[in-house]
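Review form for a predicted model. The reviewer records the input and the model, then writes brief findings.
Reviewer: anonymous (R2)
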Amino acid sequence: MILGSVLTIRVSLMLSDTVLQPAKPVSLRFLGAYFVTMRPYLLFVSGITGIVGMSLAPEVDTPRALILGLVFFSSYGFGQALTDCFQLDTDSISAPYRPLVRGTLQRRDVLAVSILGLLLCGAVVTVYNPINAVPAMLTVLGLATYTPFKRRWWGGPFYNSWIVALVAVIGYLAASGTTHAEAVLSLAFAGMLIVVFFGYANFVLAGYFKDISADRATGYRTFPVEFGRKRSSVASDLLALATVGGCCIAIFTVLAGPVSIPAALVASLFISGGTTAVIVAQIRLHEVKTDTEAHHAIQPVVHGYILLLSGVATLNQPDWAAFLVAFYLTFMITMKLRPLEAQI
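Model under review:
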């Protein structure tokens, strides 16, 4: 289903040059263009973030897991579309293919749909746990105020990361239906949040490498714009090291107890693959000389993030192993079908 949707979107992009009028919100053209704006190849990032949070709950029934998984999967897209509404200046240079930049979508329509979508996601997780009303609202406010922090070198990656880290917290709260202080204060929970926080911060920082020229031209003083690629690569190394360290902490508690051999095998493949991807990403990032080369380094950063969290989730919920393998394989296919290779 996802594969067919992405192929349809790619065809619509090729035909969009003939479109002169903005798409109406109730039309199929609007849905197709909005789907492109959501970055379908990155929906897996929020998906696995919510899933790893859910995996820490003692027991998660299948209907709840499926509904919440869909909510977390789509939340990244709504959030990405929302932030795009405030970054048309730099996107017009670095990503001219995007429907908002091309005028296929109107800013007011995207704002309305994105906020409505995020509020709907917040409502669902709040139904499963009323405590989620607070972090869900904070994520919406955080996304709406992200752009000013992106303009400051010290703000972008970490400001984005606390928002994504809340997704993992919301996942745990929604799946458990309550708050267990011992679980929240555990090494497993702390390690999981470290992986999410620093892993996503590294993705954001690496992502800035592809937009240096556009950000410089439009006044976005991101870390690479302010300090250059070499120092930014070193900063990225530190974030990557913290990410892998967090993964070690997250699995320490689980491995201290009994673990089934099949689950341990799948988890070890995820974690070793994720660690390898992180190392490859850092090596490539140090070799980046131009914006157009950056995607070769950014891509393994995303793979590493998803693989490491998949490994943690597998150890926490061994029965999810087959689903997580299918989840990652679908992510790989969707990444291959993204509309522009240099954009991640």
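Findings: Residues 126 and 249 are 29 Å apart (CA to CA).
Further findings: Residues 1-19 have pLDDT under 50 and may be disordered.
Recommendation: see findings above.
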